[in-house]
Write a structure and sequence with these properties.
It is a single chain. By secondary structure, the protein is an alpha+beta fold. It has 26 helices and 37 strands. Strands 12-14-10-22-19-20-21 form a 7-stranded mixed β-sheet, sandwiched between helices. A 5-stranded mixed β-sheet has the order 2-1-5-3-4, with helices on one face. A 5-stranded mixed β-sheet has the order 16-26-25-24-17, with helices on both faces. Helix 15 runs parallel beside helix 25 and helix 20 runs parallel beside helix 21. It is globular.
Length: about 1000
């Protein structure tokens, strides 16, 4: 059918199918700013303007827009002339991963067209239909406010950033001159110009103008569309599968089942070789182990034909008994999920234990026997979804050299290459993996999810193939943040001194155990060391169940361990009649102490790695030279007004009325060290105009890592960040990297980039010294100039041309690597103020205060945005996010309406304080994105307990759970004494 649309002011005549969605038509026409996120109009990533009104294009037929004016973000502004909204989004640090940004911009534009002076509440309401998983919304709201003021012709104040004292300082984000480096008697002493500045995100213009940036933003001739058939049963054997009718359907090019591919056990976890834990998964198997497990995959000319083909596949299942609770899975007689002999690396297949780690120090039983008080508690964390707005997607094709190219939304490109090579039988040299910008990950893109099936289809068809998950697929068939049951037992003296701590963890690993070992270690390693004591025990079991597989999640297990530990610390304080902060100060980790459990964790984790003769370089011990806990806690205590607002641990509601208020505080630490080797590499080369190409394999997932690395290289080389041209990960061109956690791996990559830049700097000075006939030691480099004593100078472009084309041609480049883990933990204190409606059970967060000691802050705007995003996700996780199943293992929360996440109107007031050191090491750069989420849940739970006098030990703190807890307390109070 012919359809006429006016798109961004241009009338187009298009040939569309009657049932074709407007989203698909626009993307087919090259409007890649319109994103596919949810299929139901819930996330806002596909927002376009229809005659000036925001509409979700993923639920609108193209024919419904006939004769209308359609506006996408490509029509809002251009690379050379940005709209004020696009400018303020960049300046306020509101972009991050950028996947939701086009939809946000259009919703904001529509608001300002009808209301030039909106209130903050009106802005939040207008943006409520556009979800963002990265930013926390506050910077987006700020950007809209600033754009509104500019459009009204008003002046706006510079962006303000809080310093370590909680005060704000203005920053002008214009192009500031680069001051020359100071001369000292010992040579050249550089003044840090680029580091510590809120520089613009280096690729923000591309993102706000809708340029192709993500894995799916491309089109290939002859592209086939793949769809996945999944299991309707939680546990079953495929007795027979008939694909005859599906293969015969016109337009179908391949149908693959377990009969068509080799049976090769693997782990989907994107971790360095040798991968720890079980190799218990198969690309396609004759046994399915959860609702949503893979059964068959189809490639066809269109997505509609592929969907039709799935319905023609006839599968005869033999249902098997299923188990969904890890406690029941451990019982004698429970169904065995992995009896197959081919799988290996499983800790105890007979008992459904995928992984087991245990470490202890001291004599725990003797310590408990001598304790004057023992406090025990059990804490339950839900299974949740990462819910990145960009779904998993891969496109595979043969290049002109008969090599398989895998273009994927993955954070672990080199691991994808290694695993795909094993599963396809291709040598790694015949596989090229390209990982463009990632539209949010949060741990969910650390696994191989679609790449293997997509590659196998290209091998079968010799055609390019695209396999993208729907939002339902994301919920049912990708990876989840695992549910955990944590039991704590603490022995103390009456003065509050902890003498023994025991943490027992039960992780629901789901059907496959790829990330089981890392999750099992992380919950204890990033919590128990906060409070060293003579006797410690940590034991964790990751147990198979017939639910979706557990994957990595933000903070490497710290969120779960800290929810239990920091809730438990408040309970201990109440039992002792002691101030919770005083209890923490009495027992917390101090400078000069050795981080407990580290060597034991190393040995325990290494026991899960197949025997290869390789030892992990995990440090045997870390002695703290700096601990930011005291400063962080002091800031939060003061800003939360803790002394005046706390209810002093009274039992039961005591404030008048149905609304009860409370405050809570929790501490956090995050140790980004990996039990396996971390290797990051960087290649830097000079161009003729004095710019530089930087090649790295660290993905950009919205955490600002590429901007930070550009600032560091620019700092060393005397240029601006925009002169550092960063190339996205590509296993053919970017250097090798073992990163399995982009947030934590930033430390290693920072030092690889710094070393490469230092080497290039020395090469530049050597060439300039030859040209100027002066010693290299006498030269300084700043603001694109190399200066010599006496006023002589050369521009970088002059040096570049002479180096590359002069009498002695010399290419200026360097490659450097870094393989040492960061040995300095990040510390944080987080405080929450809430009000709870005792009639409905609803909890409203009024304020969150977060103080983070994360070393030197390279870019304060991006850092604060990262922290706000972590706070938003932590609040959402703690109050409303939970995957719910029926008794047969069918997931009931399969869309972003039923699976509730925080929107712009849900966010409370936030106060963020970045605690920096003395500046003696400007490259003391630590991860801050992960710790931002870690202590939100316990601080919130402690605040609710303070408000109600009732302790809730299970997340999320839904109104139903709050009311149930209040009911139990009232029933107990009503009983006769």
């Amino acid at each position: 059918m012919e359809l006429e649309l006016r798109i961004n002011g241009v009338i187009k005549s298009l040939d569309v199918a009657p049932n074709e969605l407007l989203l698909n038509v626009l993307r087919r026409e090259g409007y890649y700013s319109v994103k596919h996120g949810c299929d139901h109009g819930h996330c806002g990533a596909c927002t376009v303007l229809i005659d000036g009104l925001p509409r979700p294009s993923c639920v609108m037929l193209a024919m419904q827009a006939a004769g209308a004016t359609v506006t996408t973000v490509e029509g809002l502004g251009s690379l050379r002339r940005l709209h004020p909204l696009q400018e303020t989004f960049i300046d306020a640090g509101a972009v991050h991963c950028g996947f939701c940004t086009p939809g946000m911009l259009l919703s904001a534009y529509a608001l300002l067209q009808r209301n030039p002076n909106p209130s903050e509440e009106e802005i939040r309401e207008a943006l409520a239909g556009n979800l963002c998983r990265c930013t926390g919304y506050n910077r987006i709201v700020q950007a809209v406010q600033r754009a509104a003021a500019l459009l009204r012709g008003e002046d706006i104040e510079p962006i303000s950033i809080p310093d370590s004292g909680g005060r704000t300082r203005p920053w002008n984000l214009g192009r500031a001159p680069l001051e020359p480096h100071e001369q000292t008697g010992a040579g050249v002493q550089r003044v840090h110009i680029m580091m510590g500045r809120p520089e613009r995100q280096i690729d923000a213009i591309k993102l706000v103008t809708g340029k192709p940036a993500f894995a799916d933003d491309c089109d290939l001739p002859g592209l086939l569309h793949a769809r996945l058939l999944t299991s309707p049963h939680a546990h079953a054997i495929i007795r027979e599968i008939d694909t005859t009718e599906a293969r015969a359907l016109p337009g179908v090019h391949a149908v693959l089942t377990y009969k068509d591919i080799p049976r090769i056990p693997y782990t989907s976890a994107g971790q360095p070789w040798p991968e720890p834990g079980p190799h218990d998964q198969y690309s396609l198997d004759h046994t399915v182990r959860y609702v949503g497990d893979r059964v068959a995959v189809v490639a066809a000319e269109t997505a509609e034909i592929a969907e039709q083909a799935l319905k023609l596949i006839k599968v005869d299942y033999e249902p098997l008994p299923a188990v969904f609770d890890p406690r029941q899975a451990l019982e004698p007689g429970a169904p065995r999920l992995h009896p197959e002999p081919e799988s290996y690396g499983i800790y105890d297949a007979n008992r459904n234990i995928a992984s087991h780690v245990q470490f202890e120090q001291g004599n725990i039983e003797r310590a408990f026997a001598s304790a004057e008080l023992i406090v025990e508690g059990e804490y339950v964390l839900p299974q949740s979804q990462h819910a990145a707005l960009e779904n998993h997607v891969a496109i595979t094709y043969w290049d002109e050299d008969d090599r398989l190219v895998v273009r994927t939304s993955s954070e672990v490109p080199y691991h994808v290459r290694r695993i795909v090579a094993a599963l396809t039988g291709l040598a790694p040299r015949r596989i090229r993996v390209i990982a463009p910008r990632v539209g949010g990950g949060f741990g969910g893109k650390h696994d191989l999810i679609v790449e293997d099936l997509c590659a196998l289809l290209t091998l079968a068809t010799d055609r390019p193939v695209r396999l993208e998950y729907s939002r339902v697929d994301e919920f049912r068939s990708s990876r989840v943040a695992p549910s955990q049951i944590i039991r704590l037992k603490t022995g103390l003296r009456r003065d509050g001194t902890i003498i023994a701590n025991q943490m027992l963890v039960l992780v629901n690993a789901g059907a496959y155990g790829g990330q089981a070992a890392s999750v099992s270690v992380g919950s204890g390693l990033n919590s128990l060391p906060l409070y060293p004591c003579p006797s410690l025990r940590y034991s964790a079991q990751a147990v198979y169940t017939n639910l979706p597989p557990a994957g990595a999640f933000r903070s490497n297990g710290a969120l779960a361990g800290l929810f239990a530990l920091e809730s438990h610390m408040d309970e201990i304080a109440r039992r002792l009649g002691m101030d919770p902060l005083a209890l923490r100060r009495k027992n917390w980790l101090k400078e000069g102490e050795t981080l407990p459990l580290l060597s034991l964790a190393k040995a325990s984790y290494e026991s899960t790695i197949p025997q290869t003769g390789l030892a992990s370089p995990y440090p045997a011990e870390i002695r703290l030279t700096h601990c930011g806990l005291p400063r962080c806690l002091q800031v939060v205590e003061e800003q939360l007004n803790w002394r005046e607002k706390r209810r002093q641990g009274q039992s039961g509601p005591s404030q008048s009325g149905r609304i009860q208020r409370g405050v809570g505080i929790a501490l956090a630490m995050h140790l980004p060290a990996s039990p396996q080797s971390l290797l990051s590499s960087a290649t830097l080369k000079l161009n003729e105009d004095g710019s530089f190409n930087l090649l790295i394999s660290l993905p950009e997932n919205g955490n600002g890592s590429h901007t930070i690395l550009a600032q560091i290289a620019a700092e060393v080389l005397g240029v601006r960040p925009e002169d550092i041209l960063i190339h996205p990960p590509d296993t053919d061109s970017t250097p090798f990297d073992t990163s399995s956690d982009p947030s934590s791996s930033i430390y290693a990559c920072v030092h690889a980039v710094r070393q490469a830049a230092e080497q290039v700097r020395q090469q530049l000075l050597s060439v300039a010294a030859r040209l100027l006939k002066v010693p290299a030691e006498s030269l300084s480099l700043a603001d694109y100039q190399i200066n010599a004593p006496g006023g002589k100078s050369l521009s970088l472009s002059q040096v570049a041309l002479q180096a590359l084309y002069g009498e002695q041609p010399t290419p200026i480049s360097a490659t450097s690597s870094w393989n040492a883990a960061c040995n300095a933990p990040t510390f944080a204190a987080q405080g929450v103020e809430v009000e709870v409606d005792t009639a409905t059970g609803a909890t409203r967060v009024l304020k969150v205060v977060s103080a983070i000691d994360g070393g030197h802050i390279v870019n304060p705007v991006l850092a604060e945005g990262q922290i706000e995003g972590g706070i938003a996700q932590g609040l959402s996780y703690s109050l409303c996010e939970e995957m719910v199943y029926d008794q047969q293992g069918n997931l009931l929360t399969t869309n972003l309406n039923d699976y509730r996440m925080f929107s712009a109107r849900d966010m409370p007031e936030t106060s963020i304080v970045l605690m920096e050191g003395d500046g003696s090491d400007p490259f003391d750069i630590r991860d801050i994105g992960e710790i931002a989420i870690a202590a939100v849940a316990p601080a919130l739970a402690n605040a609710v307990a303070d408000a109600l006098g009732v302790r809730l030990r299970q997340l999320p703190l839904t109104p139903e759970r709050v009311l149930r807890a209040l009911y139990v307390v009232r029933q107990q109070a009503a009983r006769p004494a």
